[in-house]
Amino acid sequence: MKKNDYVYGECIDYTHDAMGIVKIDGVPIFVKNMLLHEKGKIKIIKVLKKYAVGRLIECDKESPYRHEPKCPLFKQCGGCHLQHLSVIGQQDFKTKRVKETLLKIGHCDVDVLPCIMMDDPWFYRNKVQVPVGIQDGKIVTGFYKQHSNDIVPMDKCYIQNELSNDLVNKVRMLLENEIPYDKVTHRGNIKHILVKYGYKTNELMLVLITYQKKIKNIDKIVSILIKEFPMLKTIVQNINPRHDNVILGEQIRVLYGKGYIEDRLLGNIYRISTHSFYQINPIQVEKLYTKAIEYAQLKPTDEVIDAYCGIGTISLSLSKYVKKVYGVEIVPQAIEDAKENAMRNNISNIEWVCQDAGEFMVEFSKKKHHIDVVMVDPPRKGCSQTFLDQLILLAPQRVVYISCDVATQARDIAYLQEHHYHVDICQPVDMFPQSYHIENIVRLSYKA
């Protein structure tokens, strides 16, 4: 098999990122946008030692789950991966992927409940972060083509909320006198446009991420925007002079408003600032947290650690069910927001700690303080070894582990299973419709 060869085959499975797998003479060929049990003609576009990459040229047998993508830029843009797959097809893919990953990496054979899907899986993202570039002499905004630094110009994204789409388009027009930042020459100014939206409060926040300290005609731009978008409650400039891929810088200038917006989640109100982490799907996150709290089996006498707590969304949601919560987060701005959120909601049984979760667990376990439940929702890389070791020393009766990366979650579960923990429930939640990403809840119980 070599590049530019044509082969005929059937898709027998998916990769973790939803590429179809076809085997020819024992060699796996990964084919983008080919669905399970589809048959067709494939052009080989890359050959490596252990596998090849192909492109579907003709499909003779289509999957009953195949759908026409809603977005005309679906095949170019790297933002979505599964618009060609129906909701039932996406549910099957995500549920099966969680099951297989937990078994293969976590050595955990648990019944995985069907992934909880979204009733209307479009225009759901409350955060838009788009790069700004220049093509044919015009400023463009959009998303990067997959595995590329090329921007796919876009006026409408079908998974971003529609107000944010409109705001980004208007900002792009108003920045016509500015020059987008160039990664190669390090010239220009505008790097990214970031919009955050309060789904239940209908509040918008605009962040202009720049390389330089000044933005041309900024007062006029602000005046036009707040007049045209009355729900735009704050406009912020974030100055980032770095030359790497880190999007947000440290320096903040509030150009209009208070520098933050608010939103409501499970009855509590939250302050969201530039650096705050806030779940991007407000409808599904309520389902996610409700399930996680249910699985924790909380009692009024319980003391709980909420590790990697962010701005306190989980801590505040579960606080009314328990005696005390320790909310731990390493990002100072997030902890400040968490404290403010607790005050606004008149919640006083949470102790906020700005510290690395692993270091906190070391100090906490030295005090030999009893803990009943640990809720953990780490970043994509999963929990640190230090954190897991101290968790084992604390030996809480239940651990509820929420993760946006099932592979690192499975790795951590494998380690915990070696130290008296047993997985007894698993529930995926589709927080990211139209993409291969999954949020997953696992409850582990201590078995002495």
Task: For this entry, give a set of tags.
single chain; 448 residues; alpha/beta; OB fold (Dihydrolipoamide Acetyltransferase, E2P); Rossmann fold; 3 domains; 7-stranded mixed β-sheet; globular
Question: What does this 3D model show about the protein?
Answer:
- Strands 8-7-6-9-10-11-12 form a 7-stranded mixed β-sheet, covered by helices on one side.
- By secondary structure, it is α/β, with parallel strands linked by helices.
- It folds into 3 domains: 6-63, Nucleic acid-binding proteins (OB fold (Dihydrolipoamide Acetyltransferase, E2P), Beta Barrel); 90-119 and 281-446, Vaccinia Virus protein VP39 (Rossmann fold, 3-Layer(aba) Sandwich), CATH 3.40.50.150; 127-265, Beta Barrel (OB fold (Dihydrolipoamide Acetyltransferase, E2P)).
- 24% of the residues lie in helices and 32% in strands.
- It contains 9 helices and 21 strands.
